[in-house]
Description:
Strands 8-1-2-11-10-9 form a six-stranded mixed sheet. It has helices at about 65-70, 140-145, and strands at about 10-20, 20-25, 30-35, 50-55, 60-65, 80-85, 90-95, 95-105, 110, 125-130, 135-140. The protein has a single domain (about 10-145), classed as CATH 2.40.50.180. About 5% of the residues lie in helices and about 45% in strands.
Amino acid sequence: MGVGTVYNAQRQYVIFKLNEEYYAANVNHIVSIEKYMQVTRVPKARKSTMGIINLRGEVITVVDVKSMLGIPNTQTNGARIMITEISGNKIGIVVDTVVEVAEINNSMMQENVKVFQGKNREAITGVANVNDKYVMVLDMESLLWGDVKECPLT
């Protein structure tokens, strides 16, 4: 890039709802979006771990992202399991509904919003205004792995 060139990073995000709020995850971390299926509970798993599913012969851990973010858990019809992959590890997260895939660029982001609290506040990298909706942009790696050295789901 030459002198004076402004780089306007633009990335695609999957926008989804948790209760009535909108969230976004970078599409680079999303492998697939599946209809909600029966989750088999795992004894002595972490509170946020719902259990495991068998997806096309692969066992995948499913987590309750609402619990991880401190959001009241209300079940809705039409829930989906978004299969994420980070550092070669697949983890399913339950979302109420998937809304759209949208491009979010730096000019749409407000990164210094100070209203977030709780242990996973660093997982919310900012707020974007997308199609007249405020969308909280998640850092999936931080949300699912945080500062844990080993798999946080076991």
